[in-house]
Structure formats: structure tokens, C-alpha cells
Amino acid sequence: MTRRFAALICGTALSAMSAAPAFAAEAPDVAKALVLTPLRLVAFSAGAVIGTPIAVLRKSYANTHETFSSKSDNKVMAAGTALAALPVGIFTGTLEGVFLGTKNSWMNSTEHPFGKDSFSLGEMKE
Length: 126
Description:
This protein has helices at residues 2-17, 20-23, 27-68, 75-107. By secondary structure, it is mostly helical. The protein is elongated and about 90 Å long.
């Protein structure tokens, strides 16, 4: 039984390694990615922890301003619109900000690990 098991293991290893020369062309990219993985994880974590609240605040402000955008001269109507626009802007800004904060952190953790785009301080791309 052990001879059959050893033959099976050796055969599997030989068949798996027969494609190894095909992977040799990608070896420098894989090695670079393996070395930079701890840095990327630290940069992503820092960007997500610090950048997500920043993105939430920025999107909440933008969504509240977009929802409010009253061009009326009536002060009472503008105040009523502002009272309705504030919860809508905060709710939608929170949802979009959480998504964009983590997305910005992940997308920018490789090229510029601790740059302003990683912390959602740059241009907010959707």
C-alpha cells in the first residue's frame, strides 16, 4: 500500500512540476508581490481606518449639499428643505463613504501606499 501511495505522490508531483517552466516568466512579478504584501496590508489597514471616516464626512457633505441645492428666496422653504436634506445626505454619504473609503485604500495601497489618495484626501472617484 505504501508503494502505491508513494508512486501516486511522485506522479502527482511530476505532473504538477511539468508546467513549472511556463510559470518562470512570471517569477519576478510574483516575487515582488510576495515581498510587498506585508507593506500593502499595513497600508490598506491604515488607509481603511483613517480614510473611511474622511470619505464618510466628505460624501455626507457632498450629498447633503446636492440634495439641498435650493435656489428659492423663501427662507422658510429653504429651512424646511435643509432639515429634510440633512438626514438624506448623512445616510447616503455614510453608505457611499464606507464603500469608497475601503475601495480607495485598497486600490492605492500598492503604487503609493501612504499617499493622500489612500486616505481619501484626493479626488473622490466613484
